[in-house]
Amino acid sequence: MINDILKILENDARTTTKQISTMTGTPSADVTKLIKQAENDKTILKYKTVINWEKVGEEQVWALIEVKVTPQRDVGFDSIAKRIYRFSQARTVYLVSGTYDLLVLIVGKTMHEVANFVSQKLAPIEGIQGTVTHFMLKRYKEDGEILEGKEEVKRQPVIL
């Protein structure tokens, strides 16, 4: 039951308790209680709106930064990841497999701002061996939402 509620909210955080109740067959009071519990125990971390800032004329520079790290004794990658995710510019920080250890998503107003973040804040952190910055040239889809145009529904014809 809680998983169904969470999936509904993940897809559309504006879904009302009444709508969730109807969709799941769960009484509204129970839905409210389950959502509040999920918020309190940090299962629900945040309600998010995906915005296409280009539509309102606000330019943003998005960058994915691969970070090579020397893991620290007893804490591995966690200590360096924590230092990175405390920066307000770091939108997302992942531990990944492959050539690099951490993947950091940042957003800035200009390429120069992103470059300054990498060179002045990120690269000097002790334990960071190197970085590779990938600037995003165009975003097509974010969090399951297509940013431009509409997705075409391609249905097979029903033959009777």
Layout of helices and strands, plus pairs?
Blueprint: H1 2-11, H2 17-24, H3 28-40, E1 61-69, H4 78-85, E2 90-95, E3 102-108, H5 111-122, E4 128-135, E5 141-142, E6 145-146
Antiparallel strand pairs: 1-3, 1-4, 2-3, 5-6
Helix content: 25-40%
| Low-pLDDT ranges | none
CATH topology of the largest domain: Alpha-Beta Plaits
Count, helices: 5
- Please state the CA-atom Rg, rounded to the nearest Å: 21 Å
Secondary-structure-derived class? alpha+beta
- End-to-end span in angstroms? 38 Å
Number of self-contained structural domains: 2
Q: How many strand elements?
A: 6
Average pLDDT figure:
91
Largest β sheet strand count, sense and barrel closure: 4 strands, antiparallel
Residues in β-strands, percent: 15-25%
CATH architecture of the largest domain: 2-Layer Sandwich
Q: Which shape, going by the Cα principal axes?
A: extended
Order of helices and strands: HHHEHEEHEEE
CATH class of the largest domain: Alpha Beta
- CATH 4th-level superfamily of the largest domain: Lrp/AsnC effector binding domain/regulation of amino acid metabolism (RAM) domain
Strand order of the largest sheet: 2-3-1-4
Could you give a quick summary of the protein structure above?
This protein is an alpha+beta fold and 160 residues long. The chain has helices spanning 2-11, 17-24, 28-40, 78-85, 111-122; strands at residues 61-69, 90-95, 102-108, 128-135, 141-142, 145-146.
